[in-house]
Amino acid sequence: MNPKTGSDAMTMFLPQSPFVQHLGIELIDISEGHARLRMPFKDDLITVGDMVHGGALAGCIDIGIMAAAWAGERVPEQLRGVTISMAVEFVEPAFAESLDIVGRRVRAGRSLSTCAVDIVATNSERLVATGLGTYRMG
């Protein structure tokens, strides 16, 4: 894997990640400091009835932080990174609907990026959850 940009790295990495694939998340769009992903509704991600489990939503926030941190031209010497802190606010439940994961990089330092993520129900456009996190690259 020899990505020329951080966006290339995400385009290559996401389809190969077992956890990302378990959630069914697909990259929709990625540009400098912004990433949009989508998680389709799946029965194995529910908690009760047709409500999406909060752990799946937290996983979406984490993946959105990572994608936003990598989004753009910058590529570290070593292709590795990790979310080092994350806060999640559950706004309202998600029911039987695909979810858009919209991440943006708020600040980028040499190795740390602060990123914000909104999870929005795709069809109803309801805000389901929001998060803020710090990601370390390299």
Automatic annotation (TrEMBL):
Q: Which InterPro entries match?
A: Acyl-CoA_thioesterase_PaaI, HotDog_dom_sf, PAAI_dom, TesB_ACOT8-like_N
EC number(s) for this protein? 3.1.2.-
Report the superkingdom from the record: Bacteria
Q: Which UniProt keywords apply?
A: Hydrolase
Recorded coiled-coil stretches = none
Tell me a Gene Ontology molecular-function term this record carries: hydrolase activity
Hydrolase in keyword set = yes
Q: What Pfam families would the database entry show?
A: 4HBT_3
Q: Where is the Acyl-CoA thioesterase-like N-terminal HotDog domain?
A: 47-133
Broad class of enzyme this protein falls into: hydrolase
Tell me the NCBIfam families matching this sequence: unchar_dom_1
Which PANTHER family does the UniProt record give? ACYL-COENZYME A THIOESTERASE PAAI (PTHR42856)
Q: What is this protein called?
A: PaaI family thioesterase
**What species was this sequence derived from?**
Rhodococcus sovatensis
